[in-house]
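Hello support,

Our group uses your service weekly, and this is the first time we've seen a run hang past the timeout. The protein is Pyridoxal 5'-phosphate synthase subunit PdxT. I'm not sure whether the cause is the sequence or the server load. Input pasted verbatim:
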Amino acid sequence: MIKIGVLDIQGGVEEHVNILKKIENIEVLKVKYPKDLNNIDGLIIPGGESTTISKLMKKYGFIEAIKNFSKNGKSIWGTCAGLILLSNKVDDEDGTLKLIDIDVSRNAFGSQINSFSCNKIVEKISSIPLELIFIRAPIIKNVGENVKVLIRLEDKIVAAKQNNILVTSFHPELTNQTLFHEYFINNFIKAKRS
Ligand code: GLN
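Update from on-call engineer: The timeout came from a worker crash unrelated to the input. Re-ran successfully.
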Protein backbone atom coordinates (compact mmCIF):
# COMPACT_ATOMS: atom_id res chain seq x y z
CA MET A 1 0.00 0.00 0.00
CA ILE A 2 1.19 3.52 -0.81
CA LYS A 3 2.31 5.48 2.24
CA ILE A 4 2.23 9.26 2.25
CA GLY A 5 3.95 11.36 4.89
CA VAL A 6 3.05 14.88 5.99
CA LEU A 7 5.97 16.85 7.46
CA ASP A 8 4.86 17.48 11.04
CA ILE A 9 6.99 20.42 12.20
CA GLN A 10 4.56 23.34 12.09
CA GLY A 11 1.56 24.47 10.05
CA GLY A 12 -1.42 22.81 8.37
CA VAL A 13 -0.53 19.18 9.07
CA GLU A 14 -3.96 17.92 10.22
CA GLU A 15 -5.70 19.40 7.18
CA HIS A 16 -3.56 17.31 4.82
CA VAL A 17 -3.91 14.21 7.02
CA ASN A 18 -7.71 14.58 7.09
CA ILE A 19 -8.14 14.94 3.36
CA LEU A 20 -5.72 12.07 2.65
CA LYS A 21 -7.81 9.83 4.92
CA LYS A 22 -10.72 10.25 2.48
CA ILE A 23 -8.70 8.56 -0.29
CA GLU A 24 -8.85 4.77 -0.46
CA ASN A 25 -5.90 2.41 -0.46
CA ILE A 26 -3.30 4.73 0.96
CA GLU A 27 -1.75 5.04 4.39
CA VAL A 28 -0.96 8.41 6.00
CA LEU A 29 1.93 9.06 8.35
CA LYS A 30 3.02 12.17 10.22
CA VAL A 31 6.74 12.73 9.67
CA LYS A 32 8.19 13.95 12.96
CA TYR A 33 11.78 12.70 12.61
CA PRO A 34 14.10 12.31 9.59
CA LYS A 35 14.06 8.50 10.08
CA ASP A 36 10.30 8.51 9.34
CA LEU A 37 11.17 9.32 5.71
CA ASN A 38 12.38 5.71 5.34
CA ASN A 39 8.80 4.48 5.73
CA ILE A 40 7.03 6.58 3.09
CA ASP A 41 6.66 6.75 -0.70
CA GLY A 42 5.85 10.48 -0.97
CA LEU A 43 6.10 13.55 1.25
CA ILE A 44 3.87 16.62 1.62
CA ILE A 45 5.35 19.80 3.10
CA PRO A 46 2.35 21.80 4.36
CA GLY A 47 1.58 25.50 4.56
CA GLY A 48 2.50 27.43 7.67
CA GLU A 49 5.27 29.84 8.49
CA SER A 50 8.20 29.08 6.20
CA THR A 51 10.82 30.86 8.34
CA THR A 52 9.86 28.81 11.40
CA ILE A 53 9.68 25.53 9.48
CA SER A 54 13.06 26.25 7.85
CA LYS A 55 14.76 26.87 11.21
CA LEU A 56 13.31 23.69 12.70
CA MET A 57 14.19 21.65 9.61
CA LYS A 58 17.82 22.70 10.05
CA LYS A 59 17.76 22.01 13.79
CA TYR A 60 16.33 18.48 13.43
CA GLY A 61 18.46 17.36 10.45
CA PHE A 62 15.69 17.38 7.87
CA ILE A 63 17.58 19.24 5.14
CA GLU A 64 19.98 16.44 4.14
CA ALA A 65 17.34 13.80 4.84
CA ILE A 66 14.77 15.39 2.50
CA LYS A 67 17.40 16.05 -0.19
CA ASN A 68 18.36 12.35 -0.05
CA PHE A 69 14.70 11.34 -0.15
CA SER A 70 14.36 13.34 -3.39
CA LYS A 71 17.66 11.99 -4.79
CA ASN A 72 16.27 8.48 -4.30
CA GLY A 73 13.45 9.40 -6.69
CA LYS A 74 10.73 9.84 -4.06
CA SER A 75 8.11 12.53 -4.74
CA ILE A 76 7.57 15.69 -2.72
CA TRP A 77 4.69 18.19 -2.85
CA GLY A 78 4.93 21.59 -1.15
CA THR A 79 1.83 23.73 -0.54
CA CYS A 80 2.30 27.46 0.14
CA ALA A 81 5.07 27.60 2.80
CA GLY A 82 6.05 24.13 1.48
CA LEU A 83 6.53 25.68 -1.98
CA ILE A 84 8.73 28.39 -0.45
CA LEU A 85 10.88 25.75 1.34
CA LEU A 86 11.41 23.68 -1.83
CA SER A 87 12.40 26.60 -4.08
CA ASN A 88 15.87 27.70 -5.24
CA LYS A 89 15.44 31.37 -4.39
CA VAL A 90 13.12 33.28 -2.08
CA ASP A 91 12.96 37.07 -2.46
CA ASP A 92 16.46 36.96 -4.00
CA GLU A 93 18.00 34.90 -1.19
CA ASP A 94 18.94 31.22 -1.25
CA GLY A 95 16.06 28.83 -0.63
CA THR A 96 16.10 26.13 2.07
CA LEU A 97 15.94 22.86 0.12
CA LYS A 98 16.61 24.09 -3.44
CA LEU A 99 14.87 21.10 -5.00
CA ILE A 100 12.97 23.00 -7.70
CA ASP A 101 14.43 25.64 -10.01
CA ILE A 102 12.01 28.48 -9.24
CA ASP A 103 12.36 32.01 -7.80
CA VAL A 104 9.52 32.93 -5.46
CA SER A 105 8.17 36.01 -3.84
CA ARG A 106 6.57 35.59 -0.39
CA ASN A 107 3.19 37.09 0.55
CA ALA A 108 2.83 38.23 -3.03
CA PHE A 109 -0.97 38.59 -2.90
CA GLY A 110 -0.93 40.70 0.28
CA SER A 111 -1.59 39.89 3.93
CA GLN A 112 -4.09 37.60 5.69
CA ILE A 113 -7.08 39.85 4.91
CA ASN A 114 -6.30 39.59 1.22
CA SER A 115 -6.91 35.82 1.33
CA PHE A 116 -9.22 34.65 -1.45
CA SER A 117 -10.48 31.61 -3.30
CA CYS A 118 -11.46 30.98 -6.91
CA ASN A 119 -12.45 28.09 -9.17
CA LYS A 120 -10.46 27.04 -12.17
CA ILE A 121 -10.59 24.22 -14.68
CA VAL A 122 -7.17 22.64 -15.04
CA GLU A 123 -7.57 20.00 -17.73
CA LYS A 124 -4.39 18.11 -16.87
CA ILE A 125 -5.70 17.56 -13.35
CA SER A 126 -9.48 17.25 -13.47
CA SER A 127 -12.51 17.84 -15.70
CA ILE A 128 -14.39 19.68 -12.94
CA PRO A 129 -13.23 23.09 -11.64
CA LEU A 130 -10.67 23.03 -8.85
CA GLU A 131 -11.18 25.26 -5.85
CA LEU A 132 -7.99 27.25 -5.23
CA ILE A 133 -7.57 28.89 -1.81
CA PHE A 134 -4.82 31.49 -1.32
CA ILE A 135 -3.68 32.55 2.18
CA ARG A 136 -0.68 34.90 2.35
CA ALA A 137 0.40 33.00 -0.71
CA PRO A 138 3.70 33.21 -2.57
CA ILE A 139 3.97 33.48 -6.35
CA ILE A 140 6.53 31.94 -8.63
CA LYS A 141 8.38 34.80 -10.33
CA ASN A 142 10.68 32.80 -12.63
CA VAL A 143 11.05 29.17 -13.60
CA GLY A 144 14.12 27.33 -14.92
CA GLU A 145 14.00 25.52 -18.26
CA ASN A 146 13.31 22.11 -16.71
CA VAL A 147 10.29 23.35 -14.77
CA LYS A 148 6.79 22.87 -16.16
CA VAL A 149 4.19 25.50 -15.29
CA LEU A 150 0.90 23.82 -14.30
CA ILE A 151 -1.39 26.73 -13.34
CA ARG A 152 -1.37 30.46 -13.95
CA LEU A 153 -3.78 32.91 -12.41
CA GLU A 154 -3.89 35.75 -14.90
CA ASP A 155 -0.15 36.21 -15.43
CA LYS A 156 0.93 34.75 -12.07
CA ILE A 157 2.39 31.24 -11.82
CA VAL A 158 0.80 29.41 -8.87
CA ALA A 159 1.61 25.72 -9.56
CA ALA A 160 4.59 24.02 -11.19
CA LYS A 161 6.55 20.78 -11.29
CA GLN A 162 10.05 19.52 -11.99
CA ASN A 163 10.61 15.75 -12.16
CA ASN A 164 9.49 14.40 -8.77
CA ILE A 165 8.74 17.79 -7.18
CA LEU A 166 5.29 19.46 -7.21
CA VAL A 167 4.56 22.92 -5.79
CA THR A 168 1.32 24.87 -5.35
CA SER A 169 0.97 28.30 -3.79
CA PHE A 170 -2.64 27.51 -2.80
CA HIS A 171 -4.18 25.02 -0.34
CA PRO A 172 -6.08 22.00 -1.78
CA GLU A 173 -6.17 20.53 1.75
CA LEU A 174 -8.58 23.29 2.84
CA THR A 175 -11.19 22.36 0.22
CA ASN A 176 -13.53 19.36 0.15
CA GLN A 177 -11.89 18.13 -3.03
CA THR A 178 -9.45 15.23 -2.99
CA LEU A 179 -8.57 15.85 -6.66
CA PHE A 180 -5.18 17.48 -6.18
CA HIS A 181 -4.06 14.89 -3.63
CA GLU A 182 -5.12 12.15 -6.06
CA TYR A 183 -3.18 13.91 -8.83
CA PHE A 184 -0.05 13.82 -6.62
CA ILE A 185 -0.56 10.13 -5.81
CA ASN A 186 -1.30 9.02 -9.38
CA ASN A 187 1.06 11.21 -11.39
CA PHE A 188 4.01 11.44 -9.04
CA ILE A 189 4.14 8.62 -6.49
CA LYS A 190 2.60 5.82 -8.60
CA ALA A 191 4.30 7.00 -11.79
CA LYS A 192 7.72 6.84 -10.09
CA ARG A 193 7.03 3.38 -8.70
CA SER A 194 6.10 1.70 -11.97
N1 GLN B 1 3.33 33.57 3.91
C1 GLN B 1 3.70 32.36 4.56
C2 GLN B 1 5.22 32.21 4.59
O1 GLN B 1 5.89 32.99 4.01
C3 GLN B 1 3.07 31.16 3.89
C4 GLN B 1 1.60 31.18 4.09
C5 GLN B 1 0.95 29.83 4.04
O2 GLN B 1 1.61 28.79 4.07
N2 GLN B 1 -0.36 29.84 4.04
O3 GLN B 1 5.73 31.32 5.20
